[in-house]
Design a protein that fits this description.
There is one protein chain. The chain has one domain: Neuraminidase (6 Propeller), CATH 2.120.10. It has 2 helices and 41 strands. The strands form 11 sheets. Strands 1, 2, 3, 39, 40 and 41 form a 6-stranded antiparallel sheet that branches. Strands 23, 24, 25, 28, 29 and 30 form a 6-stranded antiparallel sheet that branches. Strand 9 and strand 10 form a beta hairpin.
Length: about 525
């Protein structure tokens, strides 16, 4: 059995005149490899995780570099899908890994969900040799693969790729990116029964960012790349018609699924667009969308008093988790500034039980008012990268959330930058950090008792543009650190206040591996 060691997460003192800050405590098991070392030093990465309450195990899935068939991708080196179970005491039960799919060519971007007893693993697959399709396979709680090399979930002409997966309402629900209207991608979704049968044909369209008129104009644009050209890329840059969704994220509260994606493309003025986020709710029982696609509007000229500067847009994929009250959304914003003024900011947003953003009225510069999504600041870090004469907070590669019925564990990777050598050059490293929250997005001072800490006090003087902020009451704790790069974490709640965090570890020399660490709230 893995021995658990109680660690204390250090919290900064507020000031000599204030009471000592509470400490957040968590029980951490020893970090342990989930994946085996394979011949040839081939990599393992993109881990995801789900928990089976009946089997009392987590299933970790990943993209694996060992291949045994005649591959055609990447000069004979492709990727396959593997998995391993991890017990409630943090022990890896399948040290050699379970081959989920070893079909020809490339399989990647796996995801996994559990119906409470068994698991469904989904991924995108290039076995057709011409485009991506979404496949899935059932895995029992005992680690037996029920569908060798998987069954087709979404296929046909053009790419079906980058899936995500949840379980609720009696069936699994998958989302993916659909390129049947190429060059436009759309987000589609569909149910899969616990018996492994797709229930919604080719799936239901959930989200798109371009109108039929815009996509028709884009298709007809002559392809002439380069300065002054009028190909797809330049057409989109000049007219704002190149808006495309990125990989979707799913979460569920058992009755409602919420899909999230963000748009990346050019704005109407020809400049690179800020990322824009969209949400769509789906009835878990029927698999039908409810309501319209909703924006998560985070960009505004109103200055948030608690942040102390103009709130811009989030960066990268969001982390989502269903709770007893609705949904939590973990986001990351990197602040741009001049000189040394750049920070990394971790925040949490809220959706109600139907999947709609919870909003609040805000007043900013010159009395300007706006109604925006309710948001809490979790932590601000003065972690920076240079961008010419500007600096910016270095964004996380991945955010993840899990809810155990009482509390949420938020994990992400964090960039650390230090000077090295006489030239004063910077070198960077990634660690994995975690922080416990309640359903209202407040940090916990006592994780076991679920005692909340109010947000840190921050006051922004608009006329003098001066920020007054107390040191943070609670700071994230380290899940993984060391000389190796630790990144791209995922997390799932287990039984009795336990969580398993998995991540990709990349040493300076040698292949990457999937690591895991047990985190107990009590």
């Amino acid at each position: 059995m893995t021995r658990l060691t109680t660690i204390t997460v250090a919290v900064l003192a507020l000031s000599a005149s204030l009471l000592a800050a509470a400490e957040q405590k968590a029980n951490l098991g020893a970090p342990a490899p989930v994946t085996p070392e394979v011949e040839g030093g081939l990599p393992q990465y993109r881990a995801e995780i789900a928990y089976s309450a009946a089997a009392k195990v987590w299933l970790v899935v990943w993209e694996d570099g060992r291949v045994a068939t005649d591959e055609t991708a990447r000069d004979g080196r492709a990727q396959d899908i593997y998995a391993a179970r991890v017990s409630l005491d943090g022990k890896t039960l399948d040290p050699k890994g379970i081959p989920i799919c070893t079909a020809k060519d490339f399989q990647g971007w796996p995801c996994v969900a559990s119906d409470g007893a068994d698991f469904l693993v989904a991924w995108h697959d290039m076995r057709s040799g011409k485009d991506w399709d979404v496949y899935a396979a059932r895995v029992s709680g005992e680690g037996k693969v029920q569908d060798k090399d998987g069954f087709l979930v979404a296929g046909g002409e053009r790419n079906q790729c980058l899936p995500d997966l949840v379980f609720g309402g009696g069936s699994y629900y998958a989302v993916w990116m659909n390129a049947k209207h190429f060059p436009e991608y759309r987000v589609c979704g569909g149910r899969v029964s616990p018996a492994g049968k797709p229930l919604d044909g080719e799936g239901t369209e959930l989200m798109r960012f371009m109108t039929d008129k815009e996509i028709d104009l884009w298709r007809k644009a002559p392809f002439a790349p380069g300065k002054g050209g009028s190909g797809w890329h330049d057409f989109g840059k000049r007219s704002g018609h190149s808006r495309q969704p990125c990989r979707p994220t799913l979460a569920t509260n058992g009755k409602v699924h919420v899909a999230s994606t963000y748009m990346s493309g050019y704005g109407a003025n020809g400049s690179w667009s800020w990322q824009e986020y969209r949400l769509r709710s789906v009835d878990a029982a029927s698999g039908k969308p409810t309501g319209e696609m909703l924006p998560l509007k985070t960009g505004t000229s109103v200055k948030y008093a608690q942040f102390g500067y103009a709130w811009g847009n989030l960066k990268n994929r969001l982390g989502l988790a269903g709770t007893d009250k609705g949904f939590l959304i973990a986001g990351y914003h990197n602040k741009h500034g001049f000189g040394s003024d750049g920070s990394g900011i971790r925040v949490v947003f809220f959706l109600d039980a139907a999947g709609a953003p919870v909003t609040e009225a805000m007043t900013g510069d010159k009395g300007k008012k706006a109604t925006l999504p309710k948001v809490r600041l979790l932590v601000e870090e003065t972690v920076q990268r240079g961008e010419g004469y500007r600096t910016g907070g270095v964004r996380s590669n991945k955010l993840a959330l899990a809810w155990d019925g009482v509390r949420a564990l938020h994990v992400s990777d964090r960039y650390i930058q230090t000077k090295s050598g006489k030239a004063g050059r910077y070198k960077g490293d990634l660690d994995v950090v975690g922080i416990f929250l309640d359903a209202d997005g407040q940090r916990l001072s006592d994780v076991a008792a679920c005692t909340s800490v109010p947000p840190d006090k921050r006051e922004y003087q608009r006329k003098g543009k001066k920020l007054t902020a107390e040191p943070p009451r609670i700071t994230p704790f380290l899940v993984a650190t060391g000389e190796a790069v630790q990144g791209a974490p995922a997390v799932a709640a287990g039984a009795e206040g336990s969580f398993l965090v998995v991540w990709q570890e990349q040493p300076a020399k040698g292949p990457s591996r999937i690591m895991a660490r047990l985190v107990r709230a009590r």
